[in-house]
Specification:
about 375 residues; alpha+beta; Creatine Kinase, Chain A, domain 2; 13 strands; ATP binding; ligase; YbdK
Length: about 375
C-alpha cells in the first residue's frame, strides 16, 4: 500500500517586458542561465514567451516550498537581467495570441504541424501536480475516484478571466482554449491498468501518437514517472496558493488510499455529472458553488471546503499540511486569482487608468510576494 505520497510541481510562466508589460520572447541567454542554475528543472515551453519549471520529487510540502521558491526566484533574477519579469497566470490580460511565435524545437514543430491552427491559440499556462503512486494497478483504481475532486481544484485555482483584453465572463478561460485540443478533458474510467494500456496503446500502435505524453486529460498517469498527474489547475500567481493546491492533491491521494485499506472507495459518478461541476468551476470559480451529488444540492465552496477539510484532517495532519489546506478555505471565502484580477481591473477603470496594465502589475507583485 502507498506510503510516501511524494509530490512534484510543474509550473508555466509568461515573460513580460518590465516597461511595456507586453509579452516578450525569452532570449537564449536567459534559458541557458536558468538551466545552468537548475539543470533539468527549467525548460522552454511551446511559445517563446513562456518558460516552464519543475520541482524534484518531495515527501514534504516544506521541501517542495524551498525548491519551488528557488525556481521562481531564479527565473525572476535571470529574467531581470534582460529587463523582463515573469508572471504566473494562465492567460495574459491583454496580449494577442496572433502576435506570438512557437519555440523552434523539433518537438514543438511537430506539435504545431499535428494541431494546425488550434496550436496557435495556445497562449495559456497551467500547473501540474504529480503524486507518487508506485503500483500501476493502484494508479488505475485511484484515477476515477480522484476525478470527482478535479472541479474543486479548478474552482480554487482559476486565474484566467481575461483574453485579448476582454473579460470573458469565465474564471478559467484557459480551459476553453485547452479543450480545443484532442485527448483532453476528464479522463475515461478504466477498470484496470491493463485496460488503460490496451486502450491508449491502440493510438500508439497506429502511430497517431508516439506515446502517452500526447494524452492531455485533466488527470493522467504520467508517462515518465510513477505518478498520477493532475493537470486541470490554472497556474497560481502566488507561491503559497500553488503549494496549497499541491497539498490538497497529496492529502486527497492519501485519503483515498486510506479508504482502500479499509475496503472502501469514493463513489463513482458518471463523467456527465462531474463534467457539469467542471463547467461550473470553469465559469464561476468559487462564486456559485458546485453540485453535491450525494444529497443532490448545490453547495457554496465554503461549505464544500469545510466538509473536505473534515475529511482530510487526518491526512493533512499526517502530512504536515494543515495550514496549506486551511488556506484553500480562505480562497473559497474571499475569492481566487480571477476574483482578485477583476477587482484590480475594476478599481483601475474607476481611477481612469489602463486596467490591463494594472492587472499585470498586480500579477508581478503577487509572483514576488512570497519569495
Amino acid at each position: 500500500m502507498q506510503t510516501e505520497y511524494t509530490l512534484g510541481i510543474e509550473e508555466e510562466y509568461l515573460l513580460v517586458d518590465r516597461d511595456s508589460l507586453q509579452l516578450a520572447e525569452a532570449p537564449a541567454a536567459l534559458m541557458e542561465a536558468c538551466q545552468a542554475d537548475f539543470e533539468g528543472q527549467v525548460s522552454p515551453e511551446f511559445l517563446q514567451c513562456q518558460i516552464e519549471v519543475g520541482t524534484r520529487p518531495h515527501t514534504t510540502i516544506a521541501s517542495a516550498r524551498d525548491d519551488l521558491k528557488r525556481l521562481r526566484a531564479c527565473v525572476s533574477q535571470r529574467a531581470g537581467e534582460h529587463n523582463l519579469v515573469p508572471i504566473a497566470v494562465s492567460c495574459h490580460p491583454f496580449a494577442n495570441w496572433k502576435d506570438q511565435h512557437h519555440t523552434r524545437k523539433e518537438r514543438y514543430d511537430a506539435l504545431q504541424h499535428a494541431l494546425g491552427g488550434v496550436a496557435r491559440r495556445m497562449l495559456i499556462c497551467g500547473m501540474h501536480v504529480h503524486i507518487g503512486v508506485e503500483d500501476k494497478a493502484l494508479r488505475a483504481d485511484l484515477m476515477p475516484q480522484l476525478s470527482y475532486f478535479l472541479p474543486h481544484l479548478l474552482a480554487l485555482s482559476a486565474s484566467s478571466p481575461f483574453w485579448n483584453g476582454e473579460d470573458t465572463g469565465l474564471s478559467s478561460y484557459r480551459l476553453t482554449i485547452f479543450d480545443n485540443l484532442p485527448r483532453t478533458g476528464l479522463p475515461p474510467t478504466f477498470t484496470s491498468w491493463a485496460e488503460y494500456e490496451r486502450t491508449t496503446g491502440i493510438l500508439v500502435e497506429l502511430g497517431v501518437i508516439e506515446d502517452t505524453t500526447k494524452i492531455w486529460w485533466d488527470l493522467r498517469p504520467s508517462h515518465r514517472f510513477p505518478t498520477l498527474e493532475t493537470r486541470i489547475m490554472d497556474v497560481q500567481p502566488r507561491l503559497e496558493h500553488a503549494l496549497s493546491l499541491a497539498a490538497m492533491n497529496q492529502a486527497l491521494m492519501r485519503m483515498l488510499c486510506r479508504m482502500k485499506a479499509r475496503n472502501l472507495r469514493w463513489r463513482h459518478y458518471d463523467r456527465f455529472l462531474v463534467g457539469e461541476n467542471r463547467w461550473r468551476a470553469q465559469r464561476y470559480g468559487v462564486g456559485e458553488g458546485l453540485i453535491d451529488f450525494g444529497d443532490r444540492s448545490i453547495k457554496p465552496m465554503t461549505v464544500l471546503m469545510d466538509e473536505l477539510m473534515g475529511m482530510l484532517s487526518e491526512d493533512a495532519e499526517a502530512l504536515g499540511t494543515l495550514p496549506e489546506i486551511a488556506r484553500l478555505r480562505q480562497i473559497a471565502e474571499h475569492g481566487n486569482s480571477a476574483t482578485r484580477q477583476r477587482r484590480v481591473h475594476a478599481e483601475a477603470l474607476a481611477r481612469g487608468e489602463d486596467a490591463g496594465q494594472a492587472v499585470v502589475r498586480h500579477l508581478i507583485e503577487e509572483f514576488h510576494a512570497d519569495l
